[in-house]
């Protein structure tokens, strides 16, 4: 084969490979960008959930576990948690009734669906029992799927120990892992 | 210079204040624990006229027993507070607990509301019932020796 023909074929092959790679890379970049935009817009808006945990919430709820930002659960879940403090994930977490009321008001006011309870959600009010465990919410499961190494998991102890990997968790900040 | 003169004065004042604060905070802590023990003593005596007084050894045995009747995940005080009261404990959710030993955590058992709250919760979790004033007093007496 003549040298120039070979050169043209080689150049063509290289250009073709580059083009295909370029297209694939763009696809991936686009997909990733779409995912990140989803984060900013709100599916990780919870990442910055308002969690100005008042001193009472910090003292009472934060005694046994990190202060979970109220925005991590919907209001119905928080109401169910506060109604079941006698058996709070296997232990008694009962409070002075006045303090319990204060805490519940705070949690409901800052819940994931705060401000949206009237209207849409009422119409389709779910008859299912409200989910109490943050680590079982769809959002949480999605965020952590294939993300947690066995070593991290062991070090944290339980998935509910957010601060083990997310230092700013109590402030509602989870992007630091 | 005026600045350094004031500076020294401020430092001395701060030192004096902090010494005063340190000494004053130590005394009430011990006094309140005594008051709490006293109230349990009176309650124990009301329940049993023959009650002689609290026993640190009984408190230790109570601390180390694997009780029945409570929740399965918390059969003993040691479950969260560990075998050694002088060590930091850990809650089931991964949070550290300051040592129960008074020698390590000076403010232990000095806030009556806090003491009652935790006895109420933890006795329910560990024993499945309310702890008696005698058990509470023995427990505190033991921790005060640690």
Order of helices and strands of chain B: HHHEEHH
- Helix fraction of chain B? 55-70%
Approximate strand percentage of chain B = under 5%
Largest sheet properties of chain A: none
What oligomeric state do the depicted chains represent? heterodimer
Structural class of chain B: mainly alpha
Task: Describe the model.
The complex is a heterodimer of chains A (177) and B (146). With 177 residues, chain A is mostly helical. Chain A has helices at 3-43, 55-60, 75-83, 97-109, 120-123, 138-144, 150-156. In chain A, 49% of the residues lie in helices and 0% in strands. In chain A, α3 (75-83) packs antiparallel against α4 (97-109). Chain A is elongated and about 90 Å long. Chain B has 146 residues and is mainly α. In chain B, α1 packs across α5 (133-145) and α2 crosses α5. Chain B is globular. Chain B has helices spanning 2-47, 56-64, 78-81, 112-126, 133-145; strands at 89-90, 96-97. Chain B has a two-stranded antiparallel sheet. Classes of the chains: A mainly alpha (177), B mainly alpha (146).
Key terms:
heterodimer; A: 177 residues; mainly alpha; 0% strand; elongated; B: 146 residues; two-stranded antiparallel ribbon; 5 helices; 2 strands; 3% strand
Q: How would the blueprint of this fold be written?
A:
The complex is a heterodimer of chains A (177) and B (146).
Chain A: H1 3-43, H2 55-60, H3 75-83, H4 97-109, H5 120-123, H6 138-144, H7 150-156
Chain B: H1 2-47, H2 56-64, H3 78-81, E1 89-90, E2 96-97, H4 112-126, H5 133-145
Antiparallel strand pairs in B: 1-2
Helix pairs in contact in B: 1-5, 2-5
Could you give a quick summary of the protein structure above?
With 177 residues, chain A is mainly α.
